[in-house]
Specification:
globular, two-stranded parallel sheet, mainly alpha, Rossmann fold, 7 helices, about 10% strand
């Protein structure tokens, strides 16, 4: 059974962040780990944030980035393409949101990609994404 993760949860597979052991336990032995190709850009920024904050050296970040990119190449992560029709669907869904829903562009891409591929749930620790998930017809889950 496939599982869709946002970049925050993918990062926990490479970085010792809060809840990383729980996320790794959730994913251990699971096939079909899926995300949007947008996670490549997000992971680059996550590694850079850890360098900026002093948690990683540039060399450590480069090594971890290499592990992530190797896993992408080996098919550990199935990355869904970001296409113009997907972006058009993001636009349609975001325009339909109640004005009280806070949602960042990357989160909207993840929610729309997961929904378009038939996922019933998305795993994240992002409170805004989890709160917005139901507006995309998907259940937000966290460890």
């Amino acid at each position: 059974m496939s599982i869709y993760l946002d970049s925050a949860y993918i990062a926990k597979c490479y970085l010792n962040e809060p809840d990383a052991p729980k996320v790794r336990a959730l994913l251990r032995g699971k096939p079909g780990l899926t995300s949007s190709a947008f996670c490549v850009a997000e992971m680059a920024c996550i590694f850079q944030r850890h360098v900026r904050e002093g948690g990683l050296t540039r060399a450590q970040a480069a090594r971890l980035r290499g592990f992530f990119r190797a896993d992408v190449g080996a098919g550990v992560w199935a990355l869904l393409p970001i296409t113009q029709p997907l972006l058009d669907e993001v636009d349609r869904r975001v325009r339909a949101l109640p004005r009280t829903v806070y949602l960042r562009a990357g989160d909207a891409i993840h929610l729309t990609a997961a929904r378009a591929e038939g996922f019933a749930e998305i795993w994240s620790n992002d409170r805004h994404m989890l709160a917005a998930a139901s507006h995309f017809g998907i259940v937000g889950k966290s460890v």
